[in-house]
Amino acid sequence: MNFATPYLLWYLLPLFAVIVFLYLLKMRRKDFKVPATFLWSSKTTDVRANAPLQRLRFSWLLVLQLLAIALIIASLARPQARQEGLAGTVTIFVVDTSASMSATDIGKTLLEEAESRIRTAVSTAQPGDRFSLVEAGPTPRVALPLSGDTARMREARKSLARSLTIADERDIDVEAELRRHRS
User: In this predicted structure, what is the pLDDT of residue 107?
Assistant: First the structure.
């Protein structure tokens, strides 16, 4: 498991310190004169607990507050789990086929890497698992409707074609842009 924003976990230490420090603060109370302290034995423990350098005593409220802070910070750090293979009984693969998938940052094109990851995931399919393949190019199309047939998935993967357009809201044609910049 990893976190999308792990730097937020550094806030745990100061927040824990603040909560513990608040438990160690000396309480301010008014002094009252009483005829005998043995009549007030239950209240003398409170007086001893208000010493500025006291030992930290176990408190369920402190534990709950620390746990609440830890859970809040951990959830804000957005935990993520990576899973290989199919995640459930129905999986839909959406593959970007824009021009950016022709990049060879990893030795082969990103589209080839996506195809190999789909192949690996489909190879882990159990009987009854179904999957679909959607090509997210300039005009999205369903390359394979929901099916459990791995042979049809193989054919659908091979039918994915890289487009020469950028996948954004403007749908800029790369070749037209190159011609415009050349002239």
Answer: 81
Mapped onto helix, strand or coil, the DSSP state of residue 53 is coil
Q: At what angle do helices 60-76 and 12-24 cross, to 10 degrees?
A: 160
102-117 average pLDDT score: 82
pTM of the model: 0.48
Distance CA 51, CA 45 (A): 11
Cβ atoms of 173 and 156 within 8 Å: the answer is no
The residue type found at 143 is A
Instruction: Please report, as a single letter, which amino acid is at residue 163.
Output: S
Question: How far is the C-alpha of 111 from the C-alpha of 120, rounded, in Å?
Answer: 14
Question: Could you tell me the fold of the domain covering 90-182?
Answer: Rossmann fold (3.40.50)
Q: Mapping DSSP to helix (H, G, I), strand (E, B) and coil, where does residue 82 land?
A: coil
Determine the residue type at 108.
K
* Both structure tokens of 141: 């199309």
Per the model's pLDDT, the better-predicted residue between 115 and 85 turns out to be 115
The domain spans of the chain are: 2-80, 90-182
Cα 22–Cα 25–Cα 26 angle in degrees, nearest 5: 150
Q: Mean pLDDT of all residues in the chain?
A: 77
